[in-house]
Amino acid sequence: MSFLNNGLSGIHASQMALSVASNNIANAATPGYSRQQIMLSARPGGFYGAGNGVQVDGVQRIADQYLTAAVWSSNTQAGFATAKASYLGKTEELFGSEGSNISAGLDSLYAALNASIESPNDIATRQGVLNEARALTSRFSTINQGLDSQLKQIESQLGASVSEINTRLENIANLNKEIQGHTASGNIPPALLDARDQAVSELSEMVEIRTTENSDGTLNITLPMGQPLVLGNSAGTFNLTPDLDNPQFSKLSLSVGGTDYHLDGNVGGQLGALFDYRDNSWQQSRDFIDELAMKLADAFNEVLAEGTDLNGNAPEMDLFSYDPANPAATLKVSDGFTADMLAFGKSENPGEPGKPGDNSNLLDLVALADKKLEFDSLGTSATLNEAYATKLGQLGIESRQAQLEAETAVGELVRSLNERDSVSAVSLDEEAVNLIIYQQQYQANAKVISMADQLFATALHMW
Are 270 and 362 found together in one domain? Predict the structure, then answer.
């Protein structure tokens, strides 16, 4: 009785279809899950070639590798842009905050100098100048500490990122091995492919990658310049080592199968953003604040060296001192410098004492507010105030541009995910309809079996 076999095959197919639909529903919210679809075909043969029921050929994973690769690419751009925007925003905030703004400190120092013009002998106004000078050096120290803290955070994040990337590379290599083991049978579990795609997606957020699928189902992964990260079952390892030229900085390298590749940090993703920010924006900010500290100290010390103190004598020490190897961190009012040492006057004849009450040199100090100085870190000449305002403006522009790029990259990632999901994501409405259809198929096939049983019983009674 062929229709009994037809019913049994239909029952089996309906059960499998219900199982696939229920699995889709259960994983509707699982990250990286691709919906599955049962594959059926009609069995050949049967009565006069009318067929011999239905057979289950397998379960198909609904995925478009082109759309998946687009998600990986968008992931890389979003990872890079958001990480860079975050650090640039912090730097702009550091330079622009009320407690560390150098322009505000310079304005207060110049105001104190102007207040001393009418009474250059007044010890109280002199002390006011000294207090504002110390407050200004404190602002440099605050910015320096903020930049130092950022560098430590970046280096710590680099270490954590490299460790995380290495774990993901090893995970992908292990998944490749499992997939390779199923290739011979031609039945690779869809969940295994989903797991690998999800692992690659997580990796793509950290570094920019290129992928190639091999005939055995494994996936090779390289950096854009061709350095291998995963080759079949073998995973590479990223390493960080101190930069001999700058011990504060770490250098990146890649080890694969006994071969070492020295990388410049231009690897894209979050890891690439950390190197890019550190080697460019952070370094430029450090160079500027150090140069500004030196220009400030040298300019004031140079003018004061030409004057006479409250007692009409040539100054015995500089107002500002610093270590040329680390200017912003070490800038300070020289130890032992007192208010009466401020050289506000000038000697009429070189080598002779000046006249108490003279403010000639004080006027030269006030004039520093308008004096143009050459700033190599900015590539231009500017006053001390103008230089800081220029740097703050640059940071603001870079920060806003980075934020816009981050928003654009995240928007592109959302669009890529939506395109992928339009093909691969589970539609609960669709699966609910499928459940009804498969349930009806099951019931109809059960009816066929029941009818076959009744006909068989009738035939037995006839005998």
Answer: yes
Backbone angles phi, psi at 340, to 5 degrees: -70, -15
Count: domains in the chain = 2
How would residue 350 be classed by pLDDT, with cut points 50, 70 and 90? low
Q: Which domain holds residue 442?
A: 2-62+428-462
Supply the pLDDT for residue 228.
Answer: 96
End-to-end Cα spacing for the chain: 18
83 and 55 belong to one structural domain = no
Longest Cα pair distance anywhere in the chain, in angstroms?
146
How much is the mean pLDDT over the chain? Answer: 91
Q: Is the same domain home to 115 and 28?
A: no
Q: Give the span between the Cα atoms of 209 and 198, in whole angstroms.
A: 14
Distance of CA 312 to the CA centre of its chain: 59
pLDDT per residue over 189-234, tens digit each? 999 999 999 999 999 999 999 999 998 999 999 999 999 999 999 9
The percent of residues in the chain predicted with pLDDT above 90, rounded, is 69
Q: Domain for residue 316, yes or no?
A: yes
Q: Which residues, 6 or more positions from 198, have their beta carbon under 8 angstroms from its beta carbon?
A: 31, 32
Phi and psi dihedrals of 63, rounded to 5? Answer: -150, 145
Average pLDDT over residues 305-324: 93
Rounded Cα distance between 60 and 34, Å, is 10
Q: In what helix (H) or strand (E) does residue 40 lie, and over which residues does it extend?
A: strand 36-42
